[in-house]
Design brief:
Number of strands: 2
Order of helices and strands: HHHHHHEEHHHH
Strand order of the largest sheet: 1-2
Structural class: mainly alpha
Radius of gyration: 21 Å
Shape: extended
Largest sheet: 2 strands, antiparallel
Strand content: under 5%
């Protein structure tokens, strides 16, 4: 789905060639419709094929499978969107807070905005230098890939203050944060590309210095 509807997906690329920018909320809606439709039809067709081999027939299993598939697709979309909002709040708190305030008129507490961002659940300074020791590095390297979502569900104190503020605000605040995170994706991709270019350039300089 991301290959077709994502920030660098086929649809965005075709529209950008024509000078059209796809709004983040439009991409989110299109991704939701595509995901739920795909999962609904997949579950429905499979259930219908199984039902055709039983005395029940294919109709009722197909409808039941479509309902189950649609519910599963909505859960997957909500879960991924929530993880994206939490990750954006932890790594780019000022960017997300700016989108919340400017785009949607949601006031964010200053103590949440001014808290240092997190990388692998570790605070980093404005220059991007991680404040960690060997023990922290060894423990953070063993993090489960689903820690972001688990911390969001459990409202762990290890979360960034902005992410905790969002998750404790109910469905309304979380919904605005999800939309704001969608709006921030283009800027985040540009920031991460710049970071990647800096890493490549630094590695190239190190190789050249070693050869000299």
């Amino acid at each position: 789905m991301d290959a077709l509807l994502g920030e660098d997906g086929l649809l965005s690329s075709l529209l950008n060639l024509g000078g059209i920018t796809v709004p983040a909320r439009t991409r989110f809606i299109a991704n939701t419709v595509a995901t739920t439709t795909y999962s609904s039809l997949t579950f429905g067709l499979f259930s219908g094929l199984v039902g055709a081999a039983t005395p029940m027939g294919p109709l009722v299993p197909f409808l039941s499978g479509c309902w189950m598939g649609y519910s599963f697709g909505v859960y997957v979309v909500w879960r991924s969107a929530k993880m994206m909002a939490v990750r954006c709040a932890e790594r780019y708190p000022k960017l997300l807070a700016h989108a919340l305030e400017m785009e949607f008129g949601v006031c964010v507490p200053r103590e949440c905005v001014n808290a240092p961002p997190l990388t692998n659940n570790v605070p980093i300074s404005e220059k991007g230098i991680e404040k960690i020791d060997d023990n922290t590095m060894s423990s953070s390297s063993r993090k489960n890939p689903h820690d972001d979502y688990e911390r969001c569900i459990n409202y762990s104190i290890s979360m960034h203050p902005l992410a905790l503020w969002i998750c404790n605000g109910g469905a309304g605040r979380l919904s605005w944060a999800i939309l704001a995170a969608q709006e921030c994706q283009r800027s985040i991709i540009e920031l991460e590309r710049d970071q990647r270019d800096q890493i490549v350039e630094a590695n190239y300089k190190n190789i050249m210095d070693e050869n000299d």
